[in-house]
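Late entry, written up from scratch paper. The run itself happened at the end of the previous shift, but nothing got recorded in the book at the time, so transcribing now.
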Amino acid sequence: MQRHFYLLDMTAFRPSPPVFFGLLKNKCAGITAKQTLTLAILSFDSGGNMETLWQDLRFSLRILAKRPGFTFIVVLTLALGIGATTAIFSLIYGILLRPFPYREPDRLARIQTVFAKPGAATRGSSLRDVEDWRKLNRTLDDLGAYTTFDSDLRGDGLAEPIRMTQLNPGALSILGVQPIVGRLFLSEEDLQGSDVHKALIGYDLWQRRFGADPNIVGKSLRTGIVTLTIVGVMPPGFRFPENTDVWTPMESWYALTNRSKNRDIRPYPVIARLRPGVTLDQAQADLNGVAAALEQQYPKENESVRVKFSTLRDAEVGNIRPYLLLLIAAVGFVLLICCVNVANLMLAQAAARQREFSVRAALGASRPRLARALLMDSLLLALLGGAAGIALAYQAVKALLALIPVTLPFWMKIEVDAPVLLFSLAVAVLTSVLFGLAPAWQASRVNLSDALKEGARGSSAHARARSTLVVAQMALCLLLLVGAGLMMQSFLRLLHVKTGFMPEGLLVARVTNFKTGARAETAAAMAVLHEQTLTRLRALPGALSAGVTGSLPFTSAQTERSRVDLRIKGRAEEELKYSESVAGADVSPGLLDTLGVPLRAGRLFDARDVTESPMVVIINERAAKKLFPDRDPIGQELLWGAPTPQNPYCRIIGVVGDVKHRAAEGGEGVELYYPYSQWPVTNGYYVLRTQGDPQALATAMRQAINAVNKDAAIVYLKPMEQLIGESLWQRRLWGVLFAVFAFVALSLAAVGLYGVMSYLVSQRTREIGVRMALGAQTGDVLRMALAQGVKLALGGIALGLAGALGLVSLISGLLYGVTARDPLTFAGVALLLLLVALLACWIPARRATKVDPLVALRCE
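Output as recorded:
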């Protein structure tokens, strides 16, 4: 015999005698006199004081302990929802909300150059413009330009790769970060003719290379470019921008190379600090006024040049913000589905406890007291689910970081820390309210007459509420499945995009090997060094061919194209100049063959193309069609940029196939290839084609490179397919996360539908028994039960499809190769959800066919 235990509230007892004794005599109520007396004592409403709340808490703990299966399922469901929400919030907080580690970060801005003409893209700025902006603006405290690149440290052994940034002193001082040893750069250390070969080093480099020497200031730092004098050490964790190891004044490069600063060359990002009280729009208007004045002063170099301001955070985050906002919506749907599922379970429990609440209401318990009892259950379950969810979130964040193959910016810390934990606590409390309101409301609306009539059976109100929740759950699930399907299709289409070359079997070594000097002399010296290395690489067992290039598709150096001027010799003046999106590379003979780029016309580079021979270039098919639509391009002369003695016209000797430099790239780009004997390859990529697994030759390739030149620092050594995968890591991350959310939502929707169908079948047990006693067949009962579940599923699918058609337009800009209203995705998701719903309905429907009419009709 099942035993019932209740805590006693001895404060008062206010039963209504007629109802009290009526319940005692009612067998269908299934409650003994002793249990009724206990409920009567418990039902007193003392006005919500702390003692009563504590009694409710202990009673809820006892109730949950008596139902371990129910408690486990609810806690697991909530752990999934809260854990997923916490993990995604840690990502959102780390990227969008975590305070920048700078002084007054809201006043920091990024400046880009734009051209006031149709189709012009944003780009960096020229140093000459930056100098004038600094002098003439009225809304900025200061501003500065910078550029970041791979370099190396030299010593007695092999060179060590480092990340190096050259900048104006203002670019560091406006951040408000001070060195822990030494000082920042002085303004005069960035002036022509001054002692500019200075260096600030990062904290990690100071610890690793110099043993945290407190007397480091004044010592030398030998890099691949120049030997620098150390003036300071930056604080732990500071690595702006792009995880920099060493900073040096911008003028250091120009003093070393003896180059001039050209006003029409604009590769440099610029950061600025707004004056107090100045908005971005005001600063942009002010600087655009300066730009207009400069256009009048330099009409050739600054034609249509204007500026665009953005916050530094927006600039650092880039195009990732829409994906993060979409993730917030997706994880919100998952949490809602979890709440709906738990609300369904709570409604079932409320229905099972209906007799208890009826008696408590009859004995004087108020509606708030009855509602509070279930809300207390909800709060306890939410806190337990929240604790389990936080534990799950720690593991989820580790898995999330494993999906990110690149080094994140130093300020972007994705972890479950104090703000994230506070958010999780708030989510737990909110979910307790969300999934507890419906059951609490239903429980507090006890009708004593209905309770006495229905006895042990649940009310139709509970059934309607649970059915409504399942329809909402199915609709939310379909929304997530559609989003996940579209995002995964985008990623898979990008993954299988035709690149124009053969990445399989390619092994790539990114190498820094600086050498300065005149173009021709540097190119000749580096060509000899590269050829020695390539000879060793070609001799490796399993190597098929090898080449070297200064630029490679799907690498950080080729993430963006530049729109530059191209000139064709011999054309009419109006046809002389073209502004095109250009990707260029200096390559060795054999590099294009190694990559598998097909030759379409003319020839490739060979031994004829040496430093002293006429300058030559190879173009791609798109360039041939755009620039020479009515003539043969072979033999034509082409110039990239302005004509100078160091930049002459080059004769076109070949046309090769088009190559994609990034997966989502359009088909409009021009590609130019120059021989490495005429244009030097310093920082570049050695590319090796292998017979089998390219990773098997990684160690041998590293040894071959270092054997020729120990000053060549190897930044990384990876298969080409891995580089392509890393270039798509964001798309893969969003696709995987959406797929996980969709799977969780689908599982929860199936469980929710199964629970409702089980409940509905149990409610119709007597009806089914009567039908079968009157001759109904098994198939009739099965169809009847399935029809009820499928009706709910179809209602949810219809509602979800309507919502999806209205919402998918919000993600259309995030897709590639698939439309936002792709009919195959919508049809496939609807069919999948229907099949899962049929499976979830079939199990309880099958159970209904096993009902014994005699048992079903027996008096409970």
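Residues 382 and 428 are 5 Å apart (CA to CA).
(Scratch paper discarded after transcription.)
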